[in-house]
């Protein structure tokens, strides 16, 4: 089967938001939405963030995998770590407005010198077909083209399958981290 990797379009925002939520995991999404809001509420907020130009989750920061029928079946959202605070402002403002939650003190998961893979997800129906590998390779190439010395990500310590995939593609352990109260590992590929 032939899959296409390409830049995302604003019109794909709803599907991209759904896949970003899978990457975040639903417990984290509910944490951000708070007790008085649903995952559907969070999805609406995320869709608006994907539609924006100035959000870490923007379609402009996303590449998609398309099925032969042109359905979005995978995403990789990445951005220059130097832009984290500027891009995160949209999420912080949306969480305050939509959920009454203030996340302005959230820990940084990246920094300058790293193209940070914020979200990587593949629709369950298409897993095991090499799509995540294609998305990761395209993102690594994007980092190289942008002249950013490293491509990095966080992997949940409870997800050894994902960690094996990243290791096969050259990602190496940098340090322990935590995100959304989950113990994580920070991994990077350094461009030679």
Largest sheet: 7 strands, mixed
Structural class: alpha+beta
Helix count from the secondary structure assignment? 6
Tally of extended strands?
7
Could you give the order of the helices and strands? EHHHEEHEHEHEE
N-C termini distance:
33 Å
CA-based shape: globular
Percent in strands: 25-35%
Overall pLDDT, averaged? 94
Helical content (DSSP H or I, runs of 4+): 25-40%
Rg is 16 Å
Uncertain segments: none
How do the strands of the widest beta sheet line up side by side?
1-2-3-4-5-7-6
Structure description:
By secondary structure, the protein is α+β, with helices and mostly antiparallel strands. It has six helices and seven strands. A seven-stranded mixed beta sheet has the order 1-2-3-4-5-7-6, with helices on both faces. Helix 1 packs across helix 3 and helix 3 packs across helix 4. The longest helix is centred in the middle third of the chain and has 16 residues. The chain is globular. The model has no long low-confidence stretch (mean pLDDT 94).
Q: Which features would summarize this protein structure in a list?
A:
192 residues; 7-stranded mixed sheet; 39% helix; 6 helices; 7 strands; alpha+beta; globular; 27% strand; single chain
Helices and strands in order:
Layout: E1 4-7, H1 13-24, H2 26-33, H3 39-51, E2 62-66, E3 72-80, H4 84-99, E4 114-122, H5 131-146, E5 150-156, H6 160-168, E6 172-179, E7 182-190
């Amino acid at each position: 089967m032939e899959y296409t990797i390409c830049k995302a379009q604003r019109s794909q925002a709803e599907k991209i938001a759904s896949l970003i939520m899978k990457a975040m995991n639903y417990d984290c999404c509910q944490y951000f939405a708070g007790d008085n809001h649903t995952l559907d509420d969070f999805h609406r907020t995320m869709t608006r963030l994907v539609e924006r130009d100035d959000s870490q989750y923007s379609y402009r920061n996303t590449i998609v995998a398309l099925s032969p029928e042109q359905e979005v079946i995978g995403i990789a959202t990445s951005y220059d770590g130097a832009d984290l605070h500027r891009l995160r402002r949209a999420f912080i403002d949306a969480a305050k407005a939509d959920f009454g939650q203030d996340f302005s003190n959230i820990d940084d998961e990246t920094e300058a010198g790293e193209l940070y893979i914020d979200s990587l997800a593949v629709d369950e129906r298409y897993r095991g077909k090499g799509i995540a590998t294609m998305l990761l390779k395209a993102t690594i190439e994007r980092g190289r083209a942008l002249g950013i010395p490293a491509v990095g990500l966080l992997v949940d310590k409870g997800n050894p399958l994902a960690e094996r995939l990243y290791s096969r593609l050259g990602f190496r352990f940098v340090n322990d981290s935590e995100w959304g109260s989950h113990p994580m590992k920070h991994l990077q590929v350094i461009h030679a």
